[in-house]
Amino acid sequence: MEKIVITASDGYQLSALYAAPSTKSVGTIVISSATGVRKEFYLHFAFFLVGQGYTVLLYDYRGIGGSAPDDLRKMDAYMHEWGTKDMNAVLNYLVEGKGLTDIIWLGHSVGAQLIGFLEKPHHIRKVISINSALGYWRYFPFPMNWLIWGLWYFIGPLMVKLYGYGVMTKIGWGENLPRNMMKEWRSWCLNKTYFRASLKQALQADQFSQFTTPITSVYMSDDFIANDKTVPLMLTFFPNAPQRIRKLAVREFTQEKVGHTGVFRKKFRHNLWPVLIEEIKK
Question: Structurally, how many domains does the chain consist of?
Fold first, then answer.
């Protein structure tokens, strides 16, 4: 993997990794991370894709992993900027910097939710959405719904008050998040329409309606976040995009728990990764 730096439109520098196969590439795939997940989490899967002949790009959103400042307390970034700025910077790098197009966008959770902000979606052939779902807490099964309620009404606000940012590593929920990201994410997850209200108020709602790239939404049967209600609801944000949903019955492939992030772990390379490759190649 080649370490690269991608500069967003506002000058913010994003840490990224880029790899191409030794033979002729059969396509280009962007792996767009879930909230608070470092790009390195997807490395094994990325190498697997390169072995299948694909050129792959991984990157960290601003505030995450290699794209985080030394002191998160001084960072004013918002989560929607991952879509409005960072995703566009990545796509522009591939199109303008590498001369690549007909790209496959593999988005994990928020990595597929914010694709409506892409300004040049015509360069994307299709989207593979992994466990991407509307994050309203009441739509999660018991008891997880009340645990998430506790996060947003007590733990999250307390974190920001005490530390000046979201100390998510202390509760095992990925990377730490700047305060504005925590606040914005909280506002989304406490609203049954998720970030639709934010779109209407300030973020050019029509962009999502104009997104017409095909989306294949894949989710795990044991993921409490991406479930039979929240996955279809997330897709309603893209009314003009051709859509297909595939629910993977985890027990048909493995006796281990997969959940929201597990599908990218190396131990599933022989049972679940072939399913993802199948969707990529369709």
Answer: 1
